[in-house]
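Issue: ligand-bound run for molybdenum atom - logging full I/O for the record.

Environment: standard queue, default settings, no custom constraints.

Inputs:
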Amino acid sequence: MNIKYVPTTCPYCGCGCGFNLVSVDGKLAGVEPWKRNPVNEGKLCPKGNFSYEFVHREDRLTTPLIKENGEFREATWDEALNMVASKLTEIKEADPESIAFLSSARCTNEENYLMQKLVRTVVGTHNIDHCARLCHGPTVAGLAQTFGSGAMTNHLKSIQFADVIFIIGSNTLEQHPLMWRRILQAKESGAKLIVADPRFTPSAKKADLYIPFKSGTDVALMNAMMNVIISEGLEDKEFIEKRTKNFEELKEVVKNYSPEEVADITEASPDLIKEAARMYAKADNAAIVYSMGITQHHTGTDNVMSTSNLAMITGNIGRPGTGVNPLRGQNNVQGACDMGALPVSYPGYQKVIEEPIAEKMTNAWGCGDLNCKPGITVVEMMNAAHAGDIKGMYIMGENPMISDPDLQHVKEGLENLDFLVVQDIFLTETAELADVVLPATSWAEKDGTFTSTERRVQYIRKAVDAPGEARADWAIICDIAKRMGSDLFNFNSPQEIFEEIRTVTPQYAGMNKERLEKPEALHWPCPDEEHPGSPILWGEQFATADGLGVLMPIEFIPAAELPDEEYPFTLTTGRMLFHWHTGSMTRRSETLNREVPTGFVEINSEDASELGIKNKEMISVKTRRGEVEIEAKVTPDIMKGIIFIPFHFVECAANTLTNGTALDPAAKMPEFKVCAASITKLDDVIGMEETTPRKAYDLGK
Ligand SMILES: Nc1nc2c(c(=O)[nH]1)N[C@H]1C(S)=C(S)[C@@H](COP(=O)(O)OP(=O)(O)OC[C@H]3O[C@@H](n4cnc5c(=O)[nH]c(N)nc54)[C@H](O)[C@@H]3O)O[C@H]1N2
Ligand SMILES: Nc1nc2c(c(=O)[nH]1)N[C@H]1C(S)=C(S)[C@@H](COP(=O)(O)OP(=O)(O)OC[C@H]3O[C@@H](n4cnc5c(=O)[nH]c(N)nc54)[C@H](O)[C@@H]3O)O[C@H]1N2
Ligand code: SF4
Ligand SMILES: [Mo]
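Outputs:
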């Protein structure tokens, strides 16, 4: 018996936990703790623990597929790669701007780097984006304006030094469990926890102070907290004076947002807002933790900048236990952004619109001229496909047929393409629509690096062989580039790619193999080999041109679609502990899927009793985009007037309902967290006396 322990990094969330994958005779058998790993010290959440279960599924993609007369047939790699290369070349020759690429936060830095290099140097467009757009796009856009750079300011461990932790719009316990462990450790040493969320989540239940408030009113809530802080003289005058600008303008705006004045908007108790403001401002060290509750709005960037306002006027930045901490979602969404899988930036956030940067990259890559026209974003790509302006699309490791807003619109867009390539590990709902499907290897079958939410760059290591003919994403991209005539993709290993990344990504320049091999790893920016890395940002100055933090006076703007007579509820969407996004992996994991086999809609107990809806009854939820039949989960843990659907389940897909038309102007984020919905009892619709719960969705073997 041949048993191997391979230390690697979790493929799910941005916490970036490490563990050992255990293989027995070439097959994964489980995971074992990696106790010396400083991120999680041997602990894991259920997704990490059972992350190996989907790897050997019988329905993994094992050969390339080509669609003929509406049916897939198996193809050789040669055939499939030639077809992709020639089709992309044909569309590109007509107009490079009519091709769009979705890169992947599930793939490695090396793979994202190559994807954007292919798009820029071979196709000649900047039409590349990925799920960060639907996630922390507003963080990148917002914090770039206020701090000069958009990433988590502190590392995870630093939260232990906080005296007060303010969580807004993050269900940390379920979505970033090993960050939550640090928060609990801080609580054990006396830190106080404030949680603001429309749902009384498992995280909120552990709070010392919980503020229920209405989805889509975050700016009003945070302005009210600042109103209290300033009117009671609790601001940090020295920090404001020395490190920031625009305070007077901010003061002028927030003076109109007293907790009493915003009560109608937020439905939050003025007393709770005051108490929260005082707790946060009076703490020696206070940290803000946020995630999708803040970003997924058409005012996502405003919401983000409000968090930085709050931190800066109280001087809570640049020290352990403080900071603005956006918890990045996917295992490598930080890295995919760092690598330039974005329509506006090259690796290291160097802007595509700047002529000297284009010249620098042309020289670095030895390629032809690079243009300075920013590309289009995820939702814009789908709109352009719909309109016939985008003709070809290449989707690597994303499943927009469940994860993008307004699925009917997405489907029509993808069906309208002349050519769609999907590169995935499973035949997803999106891959079903492709002309060519390319089988990729999973994280357990390849080497490379992921960058976690705390800007820590860590290795993943191959533990087992890929099934059938599946190939690593980086190798597939190199082959396509070569077949499209490029000689800039002669890489034999992820390490070779990483060496090139270091030369063009200033933040990664000092990260060599020897340093990354150590479990302590490195946090960017790490500009040279002597630099120790940067777990905490903005201790002395910000990354803005003059080094000052920018306070942003922000007025509250309501959500784009508000409840009315026809659609009286506010629908918000999100996630749960046991499932991951579109379920492609967690629903194929027996243990995880057993926990929660299908979706549901949370509805407040009083609302339910007014409508005569019983727990577990099948009901219909409808919005202007569509309708789903779904099981009711009647609970006091959600505010009256608000309903919540986790978006993991195709049979009752939340995104059939969500609003894809209202986009954040800076970040192009759709409003996943608010739209207007109505609820109907199915008995009323189809005249049934009793409805039986639907059988769990069957994903086959
Ligand atoms: N188990 C699991 N973990 C995950 C993921 C997963 O799919 N499953 N996905 C990962 C990814 S990519 C991401 S981005 C993160 C996301 O992590 P989170 O942001 O924590 O997850 P969500 O459930 O989307 O939303 C968080 C909270 O926002 C609240 N909320 C709803 N509307 C509003 C509002 O208007 N304002 C505020 N302040 N709060 C609101 C919801 O009630 C919810 O509790 O999780 C990562 N971790
Ligand atoms: N309603 C609603 N919608 C949302 C959200 C919400 O809160 N509400 N959240 C949004 C957010 S924050 C996010 S991040 C997105 C996520 O949206 P997606 O990124 O589309 O979701 P995933 O299910 O993570 O898709 C990843 C795909 O990559 C594949 N994959 C896994 N590993 C590999 C690999 O190594 N190589 C390749 N080629 N493929 C691989 C998986 O099989 C899967 O199909 O969803 C967004 N959509
Ligand atoms: S907390 Fe995140 S990184 Fe850690 S085991 Fe769970 S899913 Fe994986
Ligand atoms: Mo995300």
